């Protein structure tokens, strides 16, 4: 099972995080577990590096954060998507669909490129 | 892995007990060292680490094993520092600048205090009809006395308590403002009431004191510079 390239992971991290948060508010650890589960381990990076990405999205006002006492009794920082984030997600979806269409068209002509 | 090992009579056979709190504190200190992460950032990472450890201990791992694996998964201090720097650049710059700014504020306080001593000595001396010659020695004398007692107070007493007063920037700023205002008010009065010759003599002796202080400061700086460099070269030699 080959891991995805760093560049591709970097480019896709924002739409992936926004998509996860558009379903439900969540916290860092849970978001990472979800990404690992969805990618079947193909997206693999140091878990802690997700947080700077979350903070960047927070600064851009795409998501908002708040501290809450979790069921474990510990304080935990939760994130939820804002309306600006939903718009950004819609734009990202369009972009990715466009790329997907282009690549599909190209590879349908010559399906077994490798 | 660095963590404090304690020996317990019950756990014979040299079993070391793992202290989670000690290890966590050490880890957090390491993260805070580079002043790239805020305390909130570190709290969030700690909450993540504890969540991960909860999951790992459920699979039957010991607390220590869970800590080691969770720490590895969250990423090395270098990786985390590098990634957090990308979003915390401003915070990093500010926290690095702060000590310099405090140094400048302290210097301002020192300068103003010096001017206040001069004005007060000249005013009080003139009021009692003292000769300019005496006044010009009393004023730097008072400054020297205050400096020495200040240094003694600083090194003798509870160091950390006194340092924390200096570290409170709002307090320092209000102090600078207060002392600057009194410096101005006293200076205006002194220049109006005191004979210029007295001031001239007084300034002269203060300049000599300044030069003495400057050479002392230069000597200390030079000594520190070379002793730090010596320590660094030693470290390299040791590998």
From TrEMBL, chain A:
Pfam families attached to this UniProt entry: PadR
Highest taxon of source: Bacteria
InterPro entries, A to Z: Metal_resp_DNA-bind_regulator, Tscrpt_reg_PadR_N, WH-like_DNA-bd_sf, WH_DNA-bd_sf
Domain Transcription regulator PadR N-terminal: 17-90
Residues of the signal peptide: none
Protein name listed in UniProt: PadR family transcriptional regulator
Species assigned in the record: Aureicoccus marinus
UniProtKB/TrEMBL annotation, chain B:
Sorted UniProt keywords: Membrane, Transmembrane, Transmembrane helix
Membrane spanning residue stretches: 97-117, 137-157, 169-187, 207-226
Protein name: Uncharacterized protein
Organism: Aureicoccus marinus
